[in-house]
Amino acid sequence: MQTIFVMVKCDLGKAYQVADQAVQEVEQVSEVHSISGQYDLLMKCYLAQDTDIGRFVTEHIQTLAGVRDTFTLIAFKAFA
């Protein structure tokens, strides 16, 4: 299992709709948090080890209605 975090910039006024849609429609999304700064949402995703991360993000996250931009972080180890 691999863990990634995807920061999502949404169209104005669409953050809540994007968050709801991600949780309901993308089974790999385990958590969605609203955040401050350049991005609106932080999504924690668990992917199978053999999953192509780039394909997952472009096909499942970037295609959600209201998503304007994404920034993906790959996690190596969880400490607690």
Structure in words:
With 80 residues, this protein is α+β, with helices and mostly antiparallel strands. It has one domain (2-75): Alpha-Beta Plaits (2-Layer Sandwich). 25% of the residues lie in helices and 39% in strands. The protein has two helices and four strands, in the order βαββαβ. The protein has helices at residues 15-25, 53-61; strands at 2-10, 29-34, 41-47, 67-75. Strands 2-3-1-4 form a four-stranded antiparallel β-sheet, covered by helices on one side. Strand 2 (29-34) and strand 3 form a beta hairpin. The chain is globular and about 35 Å long. The mean pLDDT is 97.
Distinctive features:
alpha+beta; 4 strands; 2 helices; Alpha-Beta Plaits; 80 residues
Helices, strands, pairings?
Layout: E1 2-10, H1 15-25, E2 29-34, E3 41-47, H2 53-61, E4 67-75
Antiparallel strand pairs: 1-3, 1-4, 2-3
What's the arrangement of strands in the largest beta sheet? 2-3-1-4
- Tally of separate helices: 2
State the CATH topology. Answer: Alpha-Beta Plaits
Strand content: 35-45%
What string gives the helices and strands in order? EHEEHE
Count the strands? 4
Based on CA atoms alone, the radius of gyration comes out at: 12 Å
